[in-house]
Amino acid sequence: MKYLLHLLIGSIIVLLIISLLLFNKSKKVETLPKIYLEGKLENLVTKEDSEIFKVRYQGNNANFNAYATIKIQGSSSQDYDKKNYNIKFYKDKNLVDKFKVDLGWGKQNKYCLKANWIDKTHARNIVTANIFADMQKKYNLFRNTPNNGAIDGYPVEIYLNSEFWGLYTINIPKDEWLFNMDKHNDNNLVFSASISSNATFLHEKPNKIDWEVEIGNDTDENWLKFERMVNFVVNSSDKEFRENINDYFNFDSLLNYYILVEFAALTDNISKNTLFVTYDGKIWYASLYDLDTSWGTTFTGKGLIDYSKMDIAISSNLWNKLKKNFANEIAKRYFQLKGNVLNEKYIMNKFYAFYNSIPESTLKKENSKWNNIPGYDLAQIEHFLRIRIPLLDKYFFKMYDNDTLLSRLYEQNYLSPNRLKTIELTNFILK
Predict the structure, then answer these.
(1) Per DSSP, what are the bridge partners of residue 35?
(2) How far apart are CA 45 and CA 394, in angstroms?
(3) How many domains are contained in the chain?
(4) Which of 56, 91, 186, 199 is deepest in the core (most CB within 10 A)?
(5) What is the model's pLDDT at position 59?
(6) Residue 417: inside a domain, yes or no?
(7) Residue 201 burial by CB count (10 A; 0-12/13-18/19+): exposed, middle or buried?
(8) Within the chain, which residues score under 50 in pLDDT?
(9) What is the pLDDT of residues 364-385, one digit of tens each?
(10) pLDDT of residue 8
């Protein structure tokens, strides 16, 4: 009898655990924050156009009424049916006093409303940025910024003149506060590549067609600071590149950037959407922006790349030189990160947590309003990871040069990536 009682109690505990696990995987029933806009969104056609709106924000994290200016945000996304917007809040309709509100990252008046047009999960941009932030955090990069030098955000519902307009995410914008910068400090600068095919460090004099000043003053003096770094990449020999790289770059930021581009197949971030950040005008950090083209998708959201394709970043002279001269360091960093960030379980938990924060009712309204939105579901990301991670293990493992113990062991078939558990390989490398 006692045995049966223990068995019954054990069965009940097991059932409770299973129920809890199933509950955690189910959709949450919470409502999203809502942003109500009153104005003429149809008047916004180009990035130069601006309109004033009345705004009401309703959510658990804040409730307020304000005025706002809204402009179209993005480059190629300007042509999408559902557009991205920059929004700035003000206290009055004359736009005299800024209205700063804390929506999760401190009090600010400027935010970005992302439509996530090519991603029906609405998760790729923010979740990938948060994975990148986790990588940065491990190496103390951008410690005093809202999200370690990466954007952040959460889903919201947008209503235009009382009618549902769409599911968006409200994000940290590409602005000074993304990097905790002082706009009065002329050494606080962010440059970005504006044309992906030309901004690949092949020309020693950067120009305003290929590059642009995203944050800071667009002066000749500041362009010379950026040109100093570009000239080093273009003109240095391999020996000079190896010996002097720390005089121009934060090395950890380069390793993290390169690895995530290869890992998540960030084909839209090889040069375009790369942000080069400096706080002193001399040492530059690489940071990622605009991450919806990721995990195997194309920039239209209507196709998939070859998951087995490696050397995604090699077309850029910077990343090519980094791989050529620091292969051991890149490989070691990859296996360090794989232990607790770059693995399937960790990544998919983040994606499902984000996606499950969007109520089913919101998704139904979104699909009704924008029934032609392209993109792929989270199962596609899982499929991508299961194919790509074993290939990445071999790709980064083979980066070790012939002077390393690991490479010799690999060649002698003592170690084989398809037989090694992640933790075993990581511990071996770190000894």
Answers:
(1) 57, 158
(2) 48
(3) 2
(4) 199
(5) 95
(6) yes
(7) buried
(8) 1-24, 29, 411-412, 414, 420-423, 430-431
(9) 999 999 988 899 999 999 999 9
(10) 43
> In which region does residue 68 sit, left (phi positive, over 0), alpha (psi from -120 to 50) or beta (all else)?
beta
Domain co-membership, 52 together with 197:
no
Same domain, 227 and 331: yes
Give the type of residue at 124.
R
What is the structure's pLDDT at 84?
A: 96
Instruction: Quote the pLDDT of residue 272.
Output: 83
> Are 67 and 158 contained in the same domain?
yes
Same domain, 220 and 290: yes
pLDDT of residue 66: 98
Residues 418 and 355 in one domain: yes
For residue 89, what are its two tokens? 């809040």
Domain span including residue 61: 34-115+150-171
214, 275 in Cβ contact below 8 A? yes
- Maximum distance among all Cα pairs of the chain, rounded to whole angstroms: 87
Contact 283, 233 (CB under 8 A): no
Minimal CA–CA distance to 273: which of 187, 167, 118, 151? 151
For 171, the token pair is 């994000």
What's residue 257's pLDDT? 97
pTM assigned to the model: 0.88
User: 3-state class of 156 per DSSP?
Assistant: strand
pLDDT at 292: 93
Q: Which two tokens stand for residue 401?
A: 């040069």
Closest CA to 286 of 240, 345, 245: 245
pLDDT of residue 422: 47
Cα distance between residue 118 and residue 164, in whole Å: 20
Q: Is residue 50 part of a domain?
A: yes
